[in-house]
């Protein structure tokens, strides 16, 4: 059973659902965690998460399949990335089993908000790990909160599978060369708010960041990774220690190679070599695959396939990825976790 919502036009907005999961870390260990109806966190005013950004988050989705069942897409990969982020910020790891169990509990408890199959909408899960407690020096917390809340979502970028335009950030980076770019921490997103506002104010979907050391290579989009399809059927996505290792990107690298026989490459994407791409897109959990119509870089506006139509390879990859996520296409071993 689902509630009545305008499933096709959800966009990407917060909606307070009945239940979320919360677990506390104290005296060196996690408690068992539980579901709660309280959507408010009660924290010490001196919590390191608030002052020094000792926090991390994740994003994954639950999908309703044709037979009405619900499934998660590679939640183990989000759990592992949260563990790597936790290591980087000296936070305790959330074990993979606990992470997946919590995700399942939240989906089950809010089952009526998992969008119906065929609407394209999904239930977005937002795991959050924060350092809390009475600490004022710059050092890691002794206590932590791990929570997962959820909301039904549609397209992240307005166009969905229709191309939209992006602008290269020349004057701001989201991360430093040896900083926290590969970790999913709020600070990276705080740094992206100002250039993001500039992009939105100028009718671009989002910002494309260049590598912070040389400003010659594409890193990623503010909220997704970047990929390009060359005229000779290569799938290329940037390799950099300061971008988020996207679960979607690694899934596409696999599908491009194993299912479509493309050459799948993680490597340099030089900003002055955009001509070699027949198509380009942004990929991520929220973004799914969002085709890039054109990129504004300085005075040059570079159009890839078309500003209005999605390219054939991008569409093929989109159909394969979402077919797997919604259970219509056989998934590679281990990619799907059923919520029963
Ligand atoms: N890059 C950034 C900056 C992101 O915020 C996201 C979203 O999670 C991604 C890339 C895509 O990662 P994933 O495919 O794991 O969602
Ligand atoms: C996601 O795709 O899950 C993200 O975290 C992107 C976010 C900026 C909305």
Automatic annotation (TrEMBL):
InterPro entries referenced in this protein's UniProt entry, alphabetically: Aminotrans_IV, Aminotrans_IV_CS, Aminotransferase-like, B_amino_transII, BCAT-like_C, BCAT-like_N, BCAT_family
Cofactor(s) the protein needs: pyridoxal 5'-phosphate
Signal peptide: none
Catalytic activity annotation: L-leucine + 2-oxoglutarate = 4-methyl-2-oxopentanoate + L-glutamate; L-isoleucine + 2-oxoglutarate = (S)-3-methyl-2-oxopentanoate + L-glutamate; L-valine + 2-oxoglutarate = 3-methyl-2-oxobutanoate + L-glutamate
CDD domains in alphabetical order: BCAT_beta_family
Keywords, comma-separated and alphabetical: Amino-acid biosynthesis, Aminotransferase, Branched-chain amino acid biosynthesis, Pyridoxal phosphate, Transferase
Any one Pfam family match given in the protein's UniProt record, by short name: Aminotran_4
Pathway terms, separated by semicolons: Amino-acid biosynthesis; L-isoleucine biosynthesis; L-isoleucine from 2-oxobutanoate: step 4/4; Amino-acid biosynthesis; L-leucine biosynthesis; L-leucine from 3-methyl-2-oxobutanoate: step 4/4; Amino-acid biosynthesis; L-valine biosynthesis; L-valine from pyruvate: step 4/4
GO molecular function ontology, one term from the record: L-isoleucine-2-oxoglutarate transaminase activity
UniProt-listed Enzyme Commission number(s): 2.6.1.42
Residues where N6-(pyridoxal phosphate)lysine is found: 184
A Gene Ontology BP annotation from the UniProt entry: L-leucine biosynthetic process
Entry similarity comment: Belongs to the class-IV pyridoxal-phosphate-dependent aminotransferase family.
Annotated NCBIfam families: ilvE_II, PRK13357.1
Alphabetized PANTHER family for the sequence: AMINO ACID AMINOTRANSFERASE, BRANCHED-CHAIN-AMINO-ACID AMINOTRANSFERASE 3, CHLOROPLASTIC-RELATED
Listed name of the protein: Branched-chain-amino-acid aminotransferase
Species name: Streptococcus hyointestinalis
Annotated gene: ilvE
């Amino acid at each position: 059973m689902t509630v009545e919502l305008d499933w096709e036009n959800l966009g990407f907005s917060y909606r307070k659902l009945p239940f979320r999961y919360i677990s506390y870390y104290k005296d060196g260990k996690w408690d068992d965690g539980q579901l709660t109806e309280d959507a408010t966190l009660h924290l010490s005013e001196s919590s390191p998460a608030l002052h020094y950004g000792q926090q991390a988050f994740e994003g994954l989705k639950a999908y309703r399949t044709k037979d009405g069942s619900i499934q998660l897409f590679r939640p183990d990969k989000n759990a592992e990335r949260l563990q790597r982020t936790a290591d980087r910020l000296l936070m305790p790891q959330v074990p993979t089993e606990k992470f997946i169990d919590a995700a399942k509990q939240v989906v089950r408890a809010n089952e009526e908000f998992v969008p119906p199959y065929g609407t394209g909408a999904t239930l977005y899960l937002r795991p959050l790990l924060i350092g809390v407690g009475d600490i004022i020096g710059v050092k890691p917390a002794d206590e932590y909160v791990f929570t997962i809340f959820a909301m039904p979502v549609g397209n992240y970028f307005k166009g969905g599978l229709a191309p939209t335009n992006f602008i290269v950030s020349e004057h701001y980076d989201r991360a430093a060369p040896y900083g926290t770019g590969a970790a999913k921490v709020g600070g990276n997103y705080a740094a992206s708010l100002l250039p993001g506002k500039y992009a939105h104010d100028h009718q671009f979907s989002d910002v494309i960041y260049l590598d912070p050391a040389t400003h010659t290579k594409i890193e990623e989009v503010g909220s997704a990774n970047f990929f390009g399809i060359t005229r000779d059927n290569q799938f290329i996505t940037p390799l950099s220690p300061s971008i988020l290792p996207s679960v979607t990107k690694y899934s596409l690298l696999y599908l491009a190679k194993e299912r479509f026989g493309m050459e799948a490459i993680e490597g340099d994407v030089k900003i002055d070599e955009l001509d070699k791409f027949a198509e380009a897109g942004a990929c991520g959990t929220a973004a799914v695959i969002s085709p890039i119509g054109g990129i504004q870089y300085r005075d040059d506006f570079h159009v890839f396939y078309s500003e209005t139509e999605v390219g054939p390879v991008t569409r093929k990859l989109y159909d394969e990825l979402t077919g797997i996520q919604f259970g219509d296409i056989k998934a590679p071993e281990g990619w799907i976790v059923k919520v029963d």
